[in-house]
Amino acid sequence: MSATKIRTTEKPAPASAVNTDPLQALDRIDRAILRQLQTDASISNVALAAKVKLSAPACLRRVERLKESGLIRGVVALIDPKAAGAGMLVIIGVVLDRSTPESFAEFEKAAQKVPGCMECHVVTGEFDYFMTVRTRDSDSFNRLHAEQLLYLPGVRQIRSFMVLKEILSTTRFPL
Amino acid sequence: MSATKIRTTEKPAPASAVNTDPLQALDRIDRAILRQLQTDASISNVALAAKVKLSAPACLRRVERLKESGLIRGVVALIDPKAAGAGMLVIIGVVLDRSTPESFAEFEKAAQKVPGCMECHVVTGEFDYFMTVRTRDSDSFNRLHAEQLLYLPGVRQIRSFMVLKEILSTTRFPL
DNA sequence: CTTGAAATACTACTACG
DNA sequence: CGTAGTAGTATTTCAAG
């Protein structure tokens, strides 16, 4: 009996590849699984198994491992913004009055409550924050601007960039 | 027998509510379904049915209707950026040299091919485009910046805003 | 450590009231 | 919409690579 066991099948996802690209460290099958699930996760496990040429139980185990490892953060339904009556997207750059921890904390707490706010990030450069907000149309954005954004705590300036055309908007990671 | 059939149970999602907020036009059950599926769509239909207090077939019919109506654009697995080795997010403002249709088209075609590019939008204001790009770290972003972004066609100026902290990043619509 | 085959439990789905 | 029945799937067990 040999001291080191040689794996005859394809090695499935090294558990701890910390210093290299985790996605490229996955084997071909795991990448195929992720590619599919990022595109359409409503597929049944047997159909997925057939696509990646694996038995259903083996496929299911891989999917569960990808979830437990945290690589798959979740499986969610995406709502079409236009169909939801929020076809307008605005990117908003925010500059705060003062750069104190309290000022930042207060703003962040309030910003998350802005209806339609999808993203809010602290950034380097000429702005303190970038937010993205979805609204119905320019009228409703004007209302949001006048009634909410201008009243966010500690704001010195906000600059709005209306999105005229969404070229690309994806949650998918290339594999 | 009466000529018009009166629905004794809650009315399920008016098919054509064009002039009002489509999300608010949904009944309580459809909203509960969407709330759940936006959070976790890996739930089984029977479990979902129990949550919204409906029989399984009725629940399934509603979910299918929400998909066919286009309100649910798809069901996808979300990959955790940090776990995928792309923990760094950069927002990039782009100004083009010339504002011609060819210039825009050429840029858009190239921008979508930038590895890690998650979003790309035409905007009003001092920039022509905003892009968001995910990379591993500042080193890999520097490489991307020097080797790809600076060579995007027709670019006069690009300004990068490094994201220091992601306060909010959601795909969820409030219901 | 993995895989796949078989058996069971559960679920999706259909027909109908 | 709900109940009941059927078809198909998820999930466990287990033997084997």
Main attributes of the structure:
four-stranded antiparallel β-sheet; 175 residues; homodimer; Alpha-Beta Plaits; DNA-binding; 2 domains; Arc Repressor Mutant, subunit A; disordered N terminus; 5 strands; alpha+beta
Task: Please tell me about this protein's structure.
Chains A, B: GO terms for molecular function: sequence-specific DNA binding. Chains A, B: This is Leucine-responsive regulatory protein. The structure is a homodimer of 175-residue chains. In chain A, 33% of the residues lie in helices and 26% in strands. The first copy, chain A, has two domains: 20-68, Winged helix-like DNA-binding domain superfamily/Winged helix DNA-binding domain (Arc Repressor Mutant, subunit A), CATH 1.10.10.10; 88-162, Lrp/AsnC effector binding domain/regulation of amino acid metabolism (RAM) domain (Alpha-Beta Plaits). Chain A has helices spanning 22-25, 28-39, 45-51, 56-68, 101-111, 138-147; strands at residues 72-79, 88-96, 117-123, 129-135, 155-169. Chain A contains six helices and five strands. In chain A, helix 3 (45-51) crosses helix 4. The longest helix of chain A is centred in the middle third of the chain and has 13 residues, at 56-68. A four-stranded antiparallel β-sheet of chain A has the order 3-4-2-5. Chain A is of the alpha+beta class. Chains A and B meet through helix 2, strand 1, strand 3, strand 4 and strand 5 of A and helix 2, strand 1, strand 3, strand 4 and strand 5 of B. Strand 5 of chain A pairs antiparallel with strand 3 of chain B, so a sheet runs across the interface. The structure holds a DNA duplex (17 and 17 nucleotides).
